[in-house]
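Changelog entry: the DUF4258 domain-containing protein record was regenerated in this release. Current contents:
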Amino acid sequence: MAEIVPLRLTTNQALQMIRRLAADTENIVVIGHAKKRRHQRRISRRQIELCVQRGTITEGPFYNSKGNWQVNLYRHAAGEELTCTVAIEWATRLIVVTVF
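Regenerated structure tokens:
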């Protein structure tokens, strides 16, 4: 049975759901726009996965126009800075909208 999307979402609740889903990298889906930006900015799939798995929320959560909760995740590691905009398709997968 699918979980019901909450009407309110705290940063901690969003992070818990992201961590749970990101534990399996199959749940991290990089869509077309993010793929294009990833190649332009020479960002690897692994860097995106680590940002989603270990990053901190810098913006959001807010409800986007597609009906999903959305956040910006930031990670600084080994001199590299990366931000991923991620939509949470509730309790099923994480959609990487863009990376910078």
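The longest strand covers residues 80-89.
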